[in-house]
Amino acid sequence: MNIAFLGSGTYSRPLDSTSEKKFRALKQLGNVYVIGYGTGVRSLVFTEQARFILMPKLKLPLMKYVSTYVMATPLLLWCIFRHRVRVVVAQGPYHGSAAAVAKIIARLLGRKTALVVENHGDFEVYLFVQRRIRLPAVYKWFMRAAAKFSFRHADSLRSVSAATQQQLESWAPGKPISQFPAWTDLDVFLDSGARPSVNREEATIVYAGVLIPRKGVHYLIEAFARVVQDMPNIRLLLIGKPVNQEYSSELHQRVETLGIADRVSFLGEMPQESLSRHISSSRVFVLPSVAE
Questions:
Q1: Which of 78, 216, 236, 142 lies closest to 88 in space, CA to CA?
Q2: Which among 32, 183, 204, 269 could bridge 282 via Cys, Cβ 3.0 to 4.6 Å?
């Protein structure tokens, strides 16, 4: 069976070890085609465990949405007719709406395709706590319309948690839903031989995730500043890509204002292997997300 995945994932060539392992496992299902985003401003096509068809990664979020609707549907149709893709998996309801258009066109041209729409988070509010949005009422109207259209034409839905399943049930009652968590390469976290021991002389708190308001990192910094006075050896490691540059700058400024710059380290994005070592040597892992 040939399957196409459509989502907002970013990939580069060669694949990182985690992505390589994921698509090597998926290859057992059949030929896999991935429509996502590259790391540059040019389109990229390559084969490594799956066939990757990557759209340009544009800096402006609005342009990224536009490129999805302009490019994703034709690319899916090409996969459906050229490579006989039978199942399309959309990472969320907004990508699902572009996939639904491809499904409708393919059906009109005599090719039947099943559509699975996933829900990885609270798609109704997450964008509005991720960055500042101009004309939020317009965005909200468009997103609700896209979600309704996507769910109406989906054959099946997938949630990653009980909360996301409840949201799907409220939006698409009666649709079949499968629930299982998102892919995580657990091996690098379970390899005890590669894990350092916890440093008993220094209490380290670690956060891992992109730096956006939705993740609540500002709450973590405020809380850390309150306990740092009572714990002279405490440190905070913030690991993740500064996706929202304005928010990231505000975090740096807040750390300076609170006088804890010598206790807080912004380590940026890193491979899973490095992340596992930091988590293993820390005392506490904190995920202060407000919409997870």
A1: 78
A2: 204
